[in-house]
Amino acid sequence: MRNESLQDILLSSRDAGFEAGFAKLRSDMLQFARLAGADSEESRTVARVLGEVAEQGDDAVAKYTREFDRVELRPDEFRVAAEELARAHASIDRELLATLRRAIANVKAYQQRIFIGDRSELTQGAGIRYTPIRRAGVCVPGAAAPLPSTVIMTVVPAQVAGVREIAVVSPPRFQGSIHPVILAICHELGIEEVYRLGGVQAVGALAYGTQTIRKVDKIVGPGNKWVQAAKRNVAGDYVAIDSIAGPSEVLIVANDQANPAWVAADMLSQAEHGVDSSAVVLTDSQRVAEGILDELGRQLATLPRAAEAMESLKRFSRVIVVGDLDEAVRLADEFASEHLEIQCGTRSCEVARRITNAGAIFIGPHTPVAVGDYWAGPSHTLPTGSRAKFSSALTCNDFVKSISLIEYTAQELAAAADDILRLAEIEGLTAHARSVAIRRQG
């Protein structure tokens, strides 16, 4: 059942001006995903709020929680009591809890398998030691529905890395507090420090510390444009951050072995994130492309939020017929999508090996993005907006830092002394040279 209003999202790379049109589509998407410039009103608002939190602490946090979230909280009410966490855990549906525990086990097993920070070495005078950061802050969005997967995908990697202190913040959008499912999963994970705070003020509290909230060393987790702008503002000077996360996106490479109904379903799974999300298909099969459009029409008719999904599809989503899979790989690497699905049947692994830019690659017809979002083990905290060209998925290794180790014997220093002196002297650093030379005098 073709929805004619979707016909415009079907393109061909053979069309005149395709390259320019594709570049404009990506440019428009990136422009929308990018945070406002430093001289914008939005950025000035973020800077003002952060400045007040840094200077006034709890008073500013309470003020902006009242202004932005319409919730009145005293500083002694910011933190969720241990009894409330335990109560939420006791009341959670037991089948849901069992599912959450299996998801936690999957994520933990994967993160332990890839962990690099459990070793230290010093050989031939040089080496490295990995140490976990001391304290991390996790931002959990306060969406209409709870997002326990976000807690799992951010907290478990930190715990595997050995982070001793983890503080979770989430805006008080559920009856003036945090949804009980979020509280329950925090309790399940042993997180005792949970604050019913969100937005710029929560990021500021984590970055600077207040009278009741101690500062952290790294802030991770998703959030709206205000949270991301706040993270960017404090990054580097006060804390580390994971990345700047924009609207969700998927790119699907499909050949003639792909199932159009499955591809359409995966496009719609991104479209339901909101009107600013994107789903792009690159296929070398006109038949598959036409089938995807037909399936989008059928499946849209059954969605509760069909109007929003339609707007999302028409805005930033496309089904593009390319000349061959080589062209699909080239465009996919240029796109550098957050989620990249390869639905090419028996050729899926071959195509996946050729991709160099993606947040996460979902290989084969039986690996929809939802598998990664909830279950497989890798974190769903991924780079968006082409940032996959230079950044990576959040892992346990993002919660460790390395310390260089250097130990020379007298003989080793003597053997290197002339070269070190020569380098110090050419740079005009006399005291550097003396610090070596003085040791030659015994």
Short description:
This protein is α/β, with parallel strands linked by helices and 442 residues long. Helix content is 47%, strand content 14%.
Explained architecture:
- The chain is α/β, with parallel strands linked by helices and 442 residues long.
- It contains 17 helices and 14 strands.
- The protein has helices spanning 18-33, 41-56, 58-69, 82-91, 94-114, 148-161, 180-188, 199-208, 225-234, 260-271, 286-300, 306-316, 325-335, 348-353, 369-374, 410-426, 430-440; strands at 10-12, 120-123, 126-132, 135-139, 165-169, 193-195, 218-220, 240-241, 249-254, 278-283, 318-321, 339-343, 360-363, 400-406.
- The strands form 3 sheets. It has a 6-stranded parallel β-sheet with strand order 1-11-10-9-12-13, sandwiched between helices.
- Helix 10 (260-271) links the parallel strand 9 and strand 10.
- It starts with 9 loop residues before the first strand and ends with a helix.
- The model has no long low-confidence stretch (mean pLDDT 92).
Query: What's the total count of β strands?
Result: 14
Q: What is the gyration radius calculated from CA atoms? A: 25 Å
The largest β sheet comes out as: 6 strands, parallel
Distance between the termini: 89 Å
Number of helices: 17
Task: List descriptors.
single chain; 442 residues; alpha/beta; 17 helices; 14 strands
